[in-house]
Each structure stands twice: as C-alpha cells, then as structure tokens.
Amino acid sequence: MLNRISEENLEEKNIMNINVIANYSKLKLTLFFLPLFFLTSIVAFLYSQNALSVDKYLLIQKNCFYFINSRLSQFPNTIYNLTQVGDALIFLSFLTIFIVYAPKMWESLLSASLVSAIFSRALKDLFHVPRPAQAYDDTSFVIIGKTLPGFSSLPSGHSITVFTILTVLLFAFMPKKLRYKFLWSFLIIITGLILVFTRVGVGAHHPLDVITGSIIGYICGLIGIFISRKYKIWDWINNKKYYPVFIALFLICCIVLLNKINNENLIVFYLSLTSLVISLFKIITVYVKK
Fold this sequence. Notes:
By secondary structure, the chain is mostly helical.
C-alpha cells in the first residue's frame, strides 16, 4: 500500500525537473577556476604581444579575421541562419517547452540572462573596440546581413548569449556516466563554437571577441545557476496559476517572429516559431487541465 502511494506521488512529480535540481545541487564554485584561467591567459597573451591597446588588439588578429571570414562566408545562407541563434529570442524560443517540464532550468536561464545582459553592456562600453566594418575597409571582407559599424565589438554579445544558455543546458542535463558526460560536454562546446564563429563569418566580430564572449557567457551561465540555487526569485515559474503570463509572452514572441519572417525569410525563424507554437499549445493544455 505504501509502495503504491509512493509510486503515485513519484509519478505526480516532474522527474525531469527533479533531475535538473539534482544536477545543479552538485555544482561547486571551483567550476569558475577554468574560465577565469582562460580569461587570464588571453590577457597574458595580449600583454606578451604588446596588444592591450585597441589598435594592437585589432592588428594581431587581423589576418586571422580575414582567413575565418573568407572561409565561412562561402556558406552565406547557413551561417546567416546559424548566427541568428545568438539572438536570445530565437535561442530561448527553442527551450520554451521546458517551462512545463523543467522550470528549474528556466529559473537559472532567467537569472543568467540578466547577468549576461549586464556584463555584455558594461564590457562593451568599457573596451570600446570598433567592429570590423569600423576598423577595416568594409569592401575587403565579406559582410552577410546588415553592416554593423560602431565600437561595440568586444565582447561579442551573441557569443555571451549562446554560451550563457548552453552552460545552463550543459549542467541541467549532464549525464551520470563519465563517458556520456564527456560526449555531452563535447557536443555542447562544439555546438557553441560553431554558432559563435558565425559572427566572424558574417563580418560582425573579430575572433577574440567571440572567444572572450564565449568564456564570459560560460561564467554568466554558472552565476545564473548559483543564483537560482540560493534564491527563490523565479520559483513562481513552477506555479501553474502564472501560466497565463507565459501564454501572453509566447503570443507576443510569435508576433515578433512573424515580423522577422516578413522582413527576412529565414528557416531558423520558422523553426523558432514552430517551437513556440508547440510550447504554447502544451502550456495552454496543462493550464486548462489544472
């Protein structure tokens, strides 16, 4: 009798969410050591090359920028679609279904996204590095999409967004077995690097911009997880009575995506919209059955 009651109670709980909480609870602050080491190494490298000034920072990676840009720009449609994933609206749309199945992950995503937005804006203003179109002759390399001028190249905001979200995903669904942990981590990292280097391919960023942005994004993702673990800022996400808020937000996002499709007929926008519609249907169904 007790076993049956226990099984029924277990079925009522969201197993995926329980696993996410368990994975997050295992994380330790030592995870910050590696990204901080990488950032320190980048600074040390720039110092050794006498490249801590903006002009020298651009000079030491100019050839690398042209090389990567010329290679990746051979696949304009592919990289232009992929680079859109660095837009938080697009990437997060693919994950909206987890509001129902893994709300704890979304608590971390929201905290991490706020942290990443602050870091991105503050660091761009601090470093004030010109974008490629501002730094070089914009006819000397390939620009796909809109030309982005100005002095907001370091760090890459898209790269921060991509690795912030991927870091939250990485630890949320980390497998238990070591070999699967390695494969999962490798897959996440490779996916992230492919996505962020499209920013060089479309002519929007220098290589070190996206590398630095990726490391900062990883740090932001970890900070978001630790915030959600310690503070209950977003625990209302798991309360179905607030689902109308998400329904309204999803509808607004659908309208924004339809507008994007109207302006630029990209496959990634259709995929993102499809994901949103599926999530919208699911969350309405769960709310109605509450």
